[in-house]
Design brief:
This protein is an alpha/beta fold. It contains 13 helices and ten strands. The strands form two sheets. An eight-stranded parallel beta barrel has the order 1-4-5-6-7-8-9-10, surrounded by seven helices. A two-stranded antiparallel ribbon has the order 2-3.
């Protein structure tokens, strides 16, 4: 199997949800969804992340999802495995499992709840780096973890040979420009915030690890290409079309709304695991309306023809 290169990753990568059926992983739905995402032109798939409900997955389930994604991808796109934990030893175990399974890289989130110092964060990521041979994307999402990576710490970590990039979900648009100047063109800068992704790209970013692209991959790809080609007017028009959907997908904790959206589209069950639960009625209505506006479903949630989607993508 050929290996897709994480060090040149750009464009939209989807942070995949995990389909459940009666509490168990729906392997068929997951494989079909992976196939659809790759067919739609997504640049990478991320499994066992926040959107995949990784905190509620067992180690065996996480390994199974990596294996399924690799089987579907067949080297066409990188399969990036979440390797996050607030225990460094546990994070290393997850990372080694992913390497053994054949993952193309790791997405390693800052440890949550513990609130480590910057030195503690550096040592945490260095330990994961030293324990595996895979390229690693750092993941900074302080709204969920209660801590953030300082620019200087990112700079120190970038000196390690297999720390190749950052998923930045801080929403701080000063960071991509500062990091690009500090780290050069080779370090991958990926937005983790769909609401500010276009601005992130314009300020030096390489792409986005996205929730939105699970639902509208072609539009996300078109937005990226327009931005990369300097077609900012078109990029802003696409962003404006997507704005109601972005708002709806983050009206409640991710991945609750996106799984509801994918349920309406017939892609997977909207089922989530506790402590998450189904969205409230206002969120359901917002998701349904936003999907219908883009032609992704009918007014009552029925899947519509792809013709409308293709017309939006030009």
């Amino acid at each position: 199997m050929k290996t897709a290169d994480l060090t040149t990753l750009c464009g939209y990568a989807s942070a995949l949800p995990t389909p459940f059926e009666d509490g168990r992983i729906d392997a068929d739905a997951f494989a079909a969804f992976c196939h659809w995402q790759i067919e739609q032109g997504i640049s990478a798939v991320v499994v066992n992340g926040t959107t995949g409900e990784a905190p509620t997955l067992t180690r065996d389930e996480q390994n199974r999802l990596v294996a399924l994604a690799l089987e579907v991808a067949e080297g066409q796109v990188p399969v990036i495995a979440g390797a996050g934990s607030n225990s460094t030893l546990h994070a290393i175990e997850i990372a080694r499992d992913a390497q053994k399974a054949g993952a193309g890289g790791l997405l390693a989130v800052t440890p949550y709840y513990n609130k480590p110092s910057q030195e503690g964060l550096f040592r945490h990521f260095r330990a994961i780096h030293d324990a595996t041979d895979l390229p690693i994307l750092l993941y900074d999402v302080p709204a969920r973890t209660g801590c953030t990576l300082a620019l200087d710490t990112i700079g120190r970590l970038a000196e390690l040979p297999r720390i190749v990039g950052l998923k930045d979900a801080t929403g701080d648009l000063a960071r991509p420009g500062n990091l690009r100047r500090m780290l050069g063109e080779g370090f991958r800068l990926l937005s983790g915030d769909d609401g500010t992704a276009l601005d992130f790209l314009a300020l030096g970013g390489d792409g986005c690890i996205s929730v939105l692209s699970n639902v509208a991959p072609k539009l996300c790809n078109r937005l990226y290409l327009a931005s990369a080609c300097g077609e900012q007017v078109e990029a802003r028009l696409i962003e404006r079309k997507l704005r109601p959907l972005v708002a709806a997908l983050f009206a409640e904790s991710n991945p609750v709304p996106v799984k509801w959206a994918l349920g309406l589209m017939g892609r997977m069950s909207p089922e989530v695991r506790l402590p998450l639960c189904e969205p409230g009625e206002s969120t359901r209505a917002s998701v349904r309306k936003a999907l219908a506006q883009l032609g992704l479903v009918g007014p009552h949630g029925l899947v519509r023809s792809a013709v409308r989607v293709m017309s939006l993508c030009g």
